[in-house]
Amino acid sequence: MNVYFLPNENIKNHQIYVLIDLLRATSSISALLHCGAEEIFVTDDINMAKELKNMGYLLAGERGAIKLEGFDFGNSPLEFLNNSDKIRKKSIVLTTSNGSKAMKKINELGDTIALSLLNFSSVVDFIIQRDFQNIGIVCSGTNGVVSLEDSYLAGLFVQRIMEKQTYHLNDGAKVSLNLTNSKRSLIMNSDHAKRLKNLGLKDDLEFCFNMDLFQVVPYSKQNSYTFKNLITI
Amino acid sequence: MNVYFLPNENIKNHQIYVLIDLLRATSSISALLHCGAEEIFVTDDINMAKELKNMGYLLAGERGAIKLEGFDFGNSPLEFLNNSDKIRKKSIVLTTSNGSKAMKKINELGDTIALSLLNFSSVVDFIIQRDFQNIGIVCSGTNGVVSLEDSYLAGLFVQRIMEKQTYHLNDGAKVSLNLTNSKRSLIMNSDHAKRLKNLGLKDDLEFCFNMDLFQVVPYSKQNSYTFKNLITI
Known about the structure:
The structure is a homodimer. The first copy, chain A, is of the alpha/beta class. Chain A has one domain (2-217): Alpha-Beta Complex (putative 2-phosphosulfolactate phosphatase). Chain A is built from eleven helices and ten strands. Chain A has helices at 25-34, 46-53, 77-82, 84-87, 99-109, 120-130, 148-162, 171-177, 184-187, 191-198, 202-208; strands at 2-4, 16-20, 39-42, 58-63, 66-67, 91-95, 112-115, 135-139, 218-220, 226-229. Chain A has a ten-stranded mixed sheet, with helices on both faces. In chain A, a hairpin with a 5-residue loop joins β9 and β10. In chain A, α7 crosses α8 (171-177). Chain A is globular, with a radius of gyration of 16 Å. Chain A binds chain B through residues 2, 4-6, 8-10, 142-148, 151, 170-172, 174-175, 178-179, 182, 186, 190-192, and chain B through 2, 4-6, 8-10, 142-148, 151, 170-172, 174-175, 178-179, 182, 186, 190-192. Chains A, B: This is Probable 2-phosphosulfolactate phosphatase. Chains A, B: Keywords: Hydrolase, Magnesium. Chains A, B: Belongs to the ComB family. Chains A, B: InterPro entries: ComB-like, ComB-like_sf.
């Protein structure tokens, strides 16, 4: 089981990839699927997103944490929950600053699951149940640097999986395990978290730190860039 | 004070850069300067290294931890110490698998100091004495992935500097601080360390974990790629 702190690390072949962008892409994907979205197409290309609007997709996304002009939604789990009636059974395009770039790279390598705190135990249970032999956990980071909150979530995940099954851990996984005893308040004061607070997004930030609110497993087949929920709600 | 776990992170402008490749480039540079080498030219280009031989340089280096053919030395601090009579007052070219690639990137950004455990306190004292306002600490990693031993040394460095002066810490620095309580035995069992052991380089590996054996501050002016010792022996 390998942890990579950034998608531009030299990532090996794994049977399954677990993508992390706690603030906020993978939290958003979990919230959207919880609201009953049919599928989430993730792209880093804003123009492609806009083209898909004509095909009936709803548009969600941000750059620099700011909602994109002409989009139906930002990248806010709370906003999705407050609009679940509009989201149910819809196809959504999501484009974000960090997570969608990471997704592009990772989903080309293999099947990908989106992990957040909001759907933590659902993903853990799924991974253990399927008995994957070789797991790659990839953090999105923030603007090309390692992010504390993603590394922390990677560590929690490694810790929980290792309670059930034993894997060889790469150096990245060992580094992430050292973060699991950190105080939540330290993690909630990461560089990206501070930026969200400065933009008035404190509620959204705090919401992303709720554990196991949603029973969803967002799963994307290799090269599909599209998450669907493996758990029927 | 920012820590970057890999040289391909999005590295900001800093007044001074501290380069880390504990196994073994920055340990080797410290050992070479301790042995009285005049200067160490660091390059990732084996052909350039060979050309410099004709100009009187001694050649040191490896790929995949294996000494290069036709080179005077490998990348072994112990080997340098055992040959200090040949090294004294000489100019050396050093080319290694990870550290020399990192050096190329970092020294283009600014003046660079090489940090290892062997010269730990010398570098700490120098940084504090010069009162740098803005420090970038860059780990070389191993073949494009985060390495435990480099991240650990970064954490020790941040911790020691923070005892004397207060800096804003980026997320990477906070992650590295979490490693400082790790047992030395865990760090000495990192992926790269295991590889060195498998290659029969256990003595060299253990030697790199000696603290403060050498009073050297390897300093390279921006774009010179050449370390000289700021402390006269």
